[in-house]
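To the wet lab folks,

You asked to see what we're planning to order before we commit. Fair enough. Below is the target structure as tokens, and below that is the sequence we designed to fit it. If anything looks off to you, flag it before the synthesis order goes out.
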């Protein structure tokens, strides 16, 4: 007999196996819930995410250019350092 501490009752191995037959124990899945289809169009969602990512890459390039230009304007006097 195996002691089920959470619920305070004893179960034998056959009872445990019988209970677990109704559940899926796998990563990324909710245990004991019915499977449901996703209600979105993957191709449409992927295209939108790709467009957003490409816009972010362009923005990154603009920001890097602005940072480089501003760093070029910084003047450090000769002989002044740590």
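Sequence we intend to order:
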């Amino acid at each position: 007999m195996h002691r089920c501490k959470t619920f305070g009752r004893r179960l034998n191995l056959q009872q445990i196996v019988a209970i677990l037959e109704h559940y899926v124990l796998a990563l990324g899945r909710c245990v004991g819930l019915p499977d449901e289809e996703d209600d979105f169009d993957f191709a449409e969602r992927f295209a939108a995410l790709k467009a957003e990512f490409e816009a972010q890459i362009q923005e990154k390039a603009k920001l890097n250019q602005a940072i480089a230009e501003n760093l070029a304007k910084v003047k450090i006097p000769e002989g002044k350092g740590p």
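Structural context that might help your review: The two ends are 73 Å apart (CA to CA). The mean pLDDT is 80.

Thanks,
Computational group
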